[in-house]
Amino acid sequence: MATPMSEEGSHSWFEKLSLALSGEPSSRGQLIELLRSSERRNLLDAEALDIIEGALLVSDMQAREIMIPRTQVVFVQLEMSVDEILPVVIESGHSRFPVTTENPDDVVGVLMAKDLLPLAMKEKGSRFKMRDLLRPCTAIPESKRLNILLEEFRTARNHLAVVYDEYGGVSGIITIEDVLEQIVGDIEDEYDFDEEDFIKQDSENSYTVKALMSILDFNEYFQCEISHEEFDTVGGMIIHNLGHLPEQGEQAKVGGFDFKVMSADSRKIKLLQMTRSGKK
After folding, report:
1. Distance of CA 154 to the CA centre of its chain
2. Strands of the sheet with 269-276, listed across from one edge
3. What pTM, to 2 d.p., does this model score?
4. What is the tens place of the pLDDT at every residue in 218-266?
């Protein structure tokens, strides 16, 4: 009778993984270590490992950790006319817009950019009712767990939720793409920027920075003099400052700048949110 080792070439990766996990880990930490050991022994490829680790991580994460902050969200107001809305849609390039009343914390629905297209076929000055175009809006607390939110997105067929703080104020928004990115990695959408760009200004004092941006380019952009002798990239600088590979949500202060890790996996930092702190 052939042994499992002699049949290894005919096993699928899932069967190989099952064999590797036959020791029945008693904790999540042991499970992750066994998965990583399986990847090192080529029983599991790196991409599959990242997806499994991401799925495990999502169950422990809350909406506040990955939401798009309010300062980076483009809202439209319920009383706006078509002529007022179209420039906002075109300039932002987004596909979904939370709609508010005069109270900026009162989100009454979501406007899809594609729902404005039929208006182009109507005569100018035709009666327009924003409420007729609104999609339902899901409201969630900052503490909402991502695995539960993902299931709610799936069952409700809704792709955007508005996140509220404990006082009833809007903290930001979160999309189904934001949750899925924690599992499968980056998904390009309207909040991403061009592949060749490494930095995007979100507001007067807030920026989104790719971790692969070189320190030389960073210094040139912000007219600063951060040393690049021990690291070449912004991501390398953050790892050096913290002394370890950070997880999403971790923060660091370097050279008068405040950094927050927006996206990272088990091997590298991907995206950072940055503001000027003014304190070196």
Report:
1. 18
2. 199-203, 206-210, 269-276, 257-264, 251-254
3. 0.55
4. 999 999 999 888 888 999 999 988 988 888 788 999 988 999 988 876 6
Pick the CATH number of 199-276 from 1.20.1250.20, 3.40.630.30, 3.90.1300.10, 3.30.465.10: 3.30.465.10
- Tokens read off for 245: 């590979």
Q: For 45-61, write each residue's pLDDT tens digit.
A: 777 777 777 777 778 88
How far is the first Cα of the chain from the last one, in angstroms, to the nearest whole number?
Answer: 69
Residue type, 160: L
CATH architecture label of 63-184: Roll (3.10)
